[in-house]
Amino acid sequence: MSDSDTPRSSAGDDLDPQDWDTLREHWRRFVDLGVTHLEGIRGQPVWRPIPEQTLHLLARDLPKTPVSLETLYQEFSKLCLPYGNGNTHPSFFGWVHGGGNVYGAIGEMCAAFMNSNAGGRDHVAIHIERQVLRWCRELFGYPADSSGLLTSGTSMATLIALAVARERACQPHVAKTQGLKAFPHALTGYCSQECHHSVAKAFQLLGLGEDALRVVSVDESHGIHVPSLAARIAEDREQGHVPFVVITTIGTVNTGAIDDVPAVLDLCQQEGLWVHVDAAFAGALALGKKYRHCFDQVGQADSIAFDFHKWFQVPYSVGGLLVRDAQAHMHTFGSRKDYLATESIGLAGGQPWFCDFGPELSRSSLAIKVWFTLRALGGERIGAMADRHCDFAAGLARRIEDNPDLELLAPVRTNIVCFRYLHPDEELRDAFNRALVSHLQFTGRAAPSTTRINGSLAIRIAIVNHRTRMEDLDRMVDDVITLASHLSQPSLTDLLRPTHWHLMHGGDARLLVDPATGLNRYGCAPFLREHAYTFASSTATSVSGHAYEHADIDRQKLLHAAWEADAFLDVAREHAQGLCGDIARILGIHDLAPEIRLSPSGTDSQLHVMAALATIVDRPLISLVCAADETGSGTPFSVTGRHFDATTALGAKVPKGEPLRGMPYIGFHGEPLHDATGRLRGIDEVDGAIEQKVAKLIQDGQHVVLHAMDYSKLGCWSPSRHALERLHDRFGAHMTVIVDACQLRIDQEDLRQHLAKGFIVLVTGSKFFTGPPFSGAAIFPRAFDQRLREDGRDLPAGVADYLPGADLGSWHGKLAEATNRPFNSGAYLRWRAALAEMQRYYSVPVEYRCQALDSLCAGVIEAVGRHPFLELLFLEGESYFERTQWLGRELSSRRTIIPFLIRDEAGYLAESRVKCLYELLNRDLTMMLSDQMPHKMGPEAHAIAAQACHIGQPVKIAGRNTAALRISMGARAVAEHWQGHPQGYLQSVAGELKQVEMILRKIGLCLEYRLC
Ligand SMILES: Cc1ncc(COP(=O)(O)O)c(C=O)c1O
């Protein structure tokens, strides 16, 4: 390269602004914004949840080109500043978060101006840190030749201190060079059960293992029980272990207790153990008057860790460490390479370097903000604040003790108060107090946190913010008491119950879990059942962790919204409407503005629809059920407007088989798919019979309610799409079509077409989409709903036993009698869980969804075909195999339910044996089989026998004494494997087929040993 080719830099190549005056103006605006924010902090909510929209705006790709400072200003002020941690607010009482201070903030900004690397060398940041450490020595009584450094917090300071203690204990084997393996004994450390978890983490990281940290009990003041400590050390010595360190705490995280440090020091001196003092937050008490004496002897401890960012109010993050034995400290961390050589003079001077006292080489200048804070405020002011906070805590404790509804859960030693509200229902107490805390946070009133004291959930108040006044604490207690009185409505109280409770209620007794098996009568659980292989989407599936989590969040959101509004029905109605909107959106029919009526089940939905039709149709009604031999057992009742069970989902006792109050007589005709000999009738044959029957009924003056089957339990349908269209064209005015699409194996295109023709569509979120069982909905076309609303007549009064107030939607005002329950939280949350599955499914790109379904279905068919004792019910190329007439190409036209029959040497298994087999598959059979097997069960047989396999319930084949089992593809098998990109996706999906193989082998095992 010639000289002229050498690139020259020009103005603007560096990263500085071109116009410093403009920068200055912007800078000042940012400072103004921050100062104004802090000045007005008391008038702001303590915390606000970050809106989805804001998170969306924050999620940007890696920036390639610059944005203006004006844009950054706008984004910071609107998207960031309002959504902070809350700890600058006087009503922030959670965990142990310091409030920061404005002088420290100036220090932080000044440190950024200098941008020093405080790892070492000779510059002013090093000298300021040394100065700050000298102040620390003075405060805690450490000798002038002790070492120390500032850290990111007490967790890091403790890790470093314990590394030094470990190194000293291992000499001469030197953990540093040879590792702990070179030390022949197990090192053990000691702390109280109230010790902070950062100590256990340090043990993990130092290779000692958490078990080497012996946890000792506490006395009634929650300080370490020194006799137990002594006993445990002696016990370990007896066992040949090497005790090396005791961690003692001044200011425990749960209750603010103070260990008896002098007693611990005495013991450790006798035992020759390292004493580490954790004074993370309470270190600031050494600046005050009241607790100064607690620090009298800490200078004799081997090390002390403390945080400036907590009670000292220095902005995050900065903690400190002092170590008495500077040599040991330096020995543990000090080793350098050539590129870090020091000199006696020049920038490379300044020995010793801070990088020799900890693991970090590059370090920011943490000391400057501490220096600013201590100099601007003076230690006395900070000490007085800490003392005052302890007085506040004592005052708060008195107020709690004076109120019979509140209970103090631990003695108040310093600035932490743990208490709870005594909810009358003991079972709900923990949930209630947990909800109280999140409600205070959610509404921005205050931000306490929670902990457990002697097993009970406690509202934990840590007074650490310099802005906090006694009136802030008084207001918090007033809020707790007022909020508790709002939460007395039973429907609201129910929302405190865990989400799995709701998933079991508001449906059917079959949802209740048998405590012995942890399963309901569908063989599934309302909580994560990770170990089971699940291909039961044709019947019911255990909730996934993903869906449960979503439902749980929704339960809490609903609780908090209703609590705040104090008008439960309105809020529930709003949430139910929101849910219906979400269902319409995810199904791609939102623009058609359909009316969605939630229900616990498809059968309930049938009843809702019949009630609506009975209201507006003047002719006599008759239900014609297509594929009648493949619908639910309650259908003949529900489609004729009769109670299909003795108890409704809302818990009302009703006469099974009797018509609902106010319901007219409704006739019934069922058109089966099988004939009397068990033969599956052809599609055309069934179409013809239906068309004839409809024509006849209409001619007789009846209004036909045609219950079309758009995917039955076995994956069949009736009538065909063309027959349905012909019927609609011929008899539209005297016929209403209800499409049973409860399997929801139907695409948007077909769903839209049904609605466009005025058909009512029944769906559930619990079949293909694997939401929890009992989440149904009837989707009414807009025009139908309008007609119903405009009709002056009321719905049959008996519907009140089935429809809770919140779910009435546009039917509000059409039920003369009020419903006895305002809300079915179970149906709501089951749908929320289902929606989470639906969203996850549709977030996989369509081509991958289709490929995954293809490979899974083909894999199951192939696997079933390989087993001689199994026989597929439908073969490729036969009618009912795939649905070529339908519009949608994803679910509508794919066979995703794969039924098969089971044979043994005597022929097809009788229905009762299939039922037994189905139940055995879902259980651990190892005990049962080990009695039967001649030899000890091999590992492979053991694994098969133990595996819980949940597949579709048996379906009796009409006219034959056998039943089909089903392995069905559900949304979860497709969505769970998607990691946001196609790499490895299909291989991962194919892993599901190994589970299928295992299921089939388990069937083989059951047959071989005649378990059924
Ligand atoms: C007693 C105690 N020790 C250690 C820690 C950990 O300190 P840091 O969060 O600064 O790492 C805390 C934090 O709350 C604490 O309260």
Automatic annotation (TrEMBL):
Q: Name one GO biological process term.
A: amino acid metabolic process
Positions carrying N6-(pyridoxal phosphate)lysine? 310
**Protein origin, superkingdom:** Bacteria
Keywords (A to Z) from UniProt: Decarboxylase, Lyase, Pyridoxal phosphate
One Pfam match, given by its short name, reads Pyridoxal_deC
- Plastid keyword on record: no
Which cofactors are named for this entry?
A: pyridoxal 5'-phosphate
Q: Which InterPro entries match?
A: Aromatic_deC, PyrdxlP-dep_de-COase, PyrdxlP-dep_Trfase, PyrdxlP-dep_Trfase_major
Q: What Gene Ontology molecular function terms does this protein carry?
A: carboxy-lyase activity; pyridoxal phosphate binding
Question: What name does this protein carry?
Answer: Glutamate or tyrosine decarboxylase
Which organism does this record belong to?
Ectothiorhodospira marina
